[in-house]
Fold this protein.
Amino acid sequence: MPFSELRCLRCGKVHRPAKNLYVCEKCGGKLEVIYDYQVIAESVSKKELVKRKGGVWKYFELLPLMNRKNIVSLGEGGTPLILAKNLAKELKMKQLYLKDETRNPTSSFKDRPMSVGVSKAVEFGARAVVCASSGNAAIALSAYAAKAGIKCHAFVPAGAPESKVAQLLMHGAHVVQPQATGEGDPTYRLMCEAWRKFGWHPIPSGGAFNPYQPEGSKTISYEVCEQLDWQAPDWVIVPTGAGTLLSGTAKGYFEFEEMGLIKEVPRLVAVQAEGCAPIVKAFREGTLPYEIPTWPNPKTVAGGLVDPYPWDADTAIPAIKRSNGTAEAVSDAEILEAVKRLARSEGIFAEPSGAAGLAGLIRLLDKGVISSSDVVVVEITGGGLKDVATALKVVEKPITIEPKLEQLENLL
């Protein structure tokens, strides 16, 4: 198989994949999935990929599963790359594309990594999985766990939107909402303790405690390359919390470049909310990934981007630098304006976290970092129905009238 080993990013120790091996046995560091790209290139070509049905598992050889029979799928991936003509005109851009991940089964990009994570857990014989999540990753995990017929335990922040908690409960997840103590992330702490105590397979949003599920995110990049006729865009803009999606996005482009499927990689942009921006701050100040402090008192309307400690900064920041990209923080006001603009210009209703990338694009256009002639892809990562309460705060309330035409005419 092209996938044969795991390598620790901190100490370099190489491991053979094994059940319950999710972090380095030597130092507890994050493990990275290693592939033999020469072997993969023998069977994965442009001609071969074009023949295959779309979706995450179209790229089976580049994912860490040993046997196709273990795939747990709800039809994730294969999302459209939309040419945003209206927004491009408003922003005076030549070519702007939106990778619409709201079309996934549970309305966020998290379905990609969770399909891979649950499939690998099934391959290991798991009976229960556990995660720490602000909502979307837990929702996706609960859906795929239900499909696989295994138990899902989810530690979710106490302030998570009710609409997200409702999805979790409907999928049959065991939901626990630990109160914040002001020190670290209580959801991750409980997840790790439960994993070690009860043997539940950890499948969190970040990659620090499981090397497998983040591999699903890189399929976004594979699809973008195909959808642009095997050309990488100039820029790819990614809403960023812990850095997991950005790391996966980057790995997809780097792998396709190594395999000769594209000539160069795009410049990557991490966009965080000003109320929780540890990766942006570390990138600007040159802080080493393992020395980044936990963000104090995080607060933003983009709840899906609240990761006080950036678990995947050790892959995200090097990826930004390698691609000659950048990192930008945006305000809640800019994020909410992007939510409205996206819906009213292109018909895509995104949650605040999902629209943060557009806010970042507008900021970087104003700064002159991105040129109007550049080809840009913005990842729209989550649907607006996940946070209806926030959406209702920024739109006009409907007007009530009697069912009389003259009242409508007066109103118009």
In short: Residues 81-108+214-393 form a domain with the Rossmann fold fold (CATH 3.40.50.1100).
